[in-house]
Structure formats: C-alpha cells, structure tokens
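Supplementary Methods, section 5.1.

A reviewer requested that the exact input to the structure prediction be made available. We therefore reproduce it here, unchanged from the version used in the analyses.
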Amino acid sequence: MNSLTLQHHYSANPYRQTTHPSVTSKTKRLIDILGALIGLAITAIVAIPIAIFIQLDNPGPLFYTQVRCGFLGKTFRIRKFRSMIVGAEKLKHLVKNEAQGNMFKNESDPRITNIGRFLRSSSLDELPQFWNVLKGEMSLVGTRPPTVDEVQLYQTHHWRRLEVKPGITGEWQVNGRSHVKDFEEVVRMDLKYQQKWSIAYDLQLIWKTLWVVLNKSGAC
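The structure derived from this sequence is encoded token-by-token as follows.
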C-alpha cells in the first residue's frame, strides 16, 4: 500500500475533521525547527562513538531505515541508530508479540544487541529523527508514527490518530510507553493529546520526556 493509497483511505474516513490546529501552528513549527537543530547538533557529537560501539557489538549499517506513515497517511522514511542485529526484520516472525492490536512490542526481544539496549534505554537511537522534524515530516511532539503494515490493518476510528504530525515524543511515550501494550489504549492516548493540545502542553510533554530519558524510565 503506497502513500497515495493510504491517503485515499484517509480521505474516505467519515471521522475526518478539519485540519488540527497543531499542524498549522507557526509557533509549534518554530519550536520544532529550534529543537531539531539542537537535536542534530547532539546527534553529530555522539554519532562517532555510537558508530564505533555498534561495529564492535554487531558489525553492519549504522542506521536502521524504515517507512512510516505520517500526517494524513503520507509515507516517509525514518532513520534510527541501529539497535538490533543485522537482518532483524527477517526474524520478526520468530519473536512473540506481547502487544494487542496493530503494534509490535516485546520487552525482551532477543534481536536487540547489547549496545542497542543502551541506545533504547537512553533514547539515543531516536536522535536521527530530528532530521525528519527539520524537514517537517515529524514534530517534536505528536503521535507514534505507525508502520505501513500496521496502517493496512486500521479500522475506521484508528485513522483519527493521523490527523496530527507524528512526533519523536508524545502522550504514549511519556505516560504509557513501558506498560501500555494495547493498541486501542494507544489510540485513546493519541486522541487525548489532540484534544488537550496547546503550545504549553507540548512544552510540558517535552519537559517530561527529558525527565523520563534522564531517569531511563519507560524505554523499550
């Protein structure tokens, strides 16, 4: 299913509302740009030591690239510092999915490398996504960007979560990442974010994210 097909599915969704104000907010976009520039500067500083440790642990590509779905179902590519063994996607069917619904989660996934567990617990693996924020494909704060195969299984009401840009962090990442394993609950949290959205709430979630990262809590 390509980007045009996904957007066609979304346009046929009877839950479709007017454009969410977070998408057109110039203040939010300015915060995204400033945050992305800071994030990319940090990424440049840590990239070399991370690359060395990845090669020592499991030689292969520095980045893991995947197609995700963003605002209105438009597809884009994200990159993360690789936290799994080479060829991990081909072994996914061998790992038990501990989540319910249209998401995959396994807290003790054997495909994760030793350095990968550190990257995930510290959220350093997410740093390359600041490039997507700078390009406008993502925001600092939003909803979890789903994979194409997840969206292919969406029911009508699930499409509402794509009415805002996906974010590096958000309601689920801050308040439920470690214990919420039911996709319907994730959708409820995403819609809660849309209802509560304001610049002040975004800043609150960013502050909470920094606290979670520094305390290494909630990571997976």
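The chain has a mean pLDDT of 88. These observations are discussed further in the main text.
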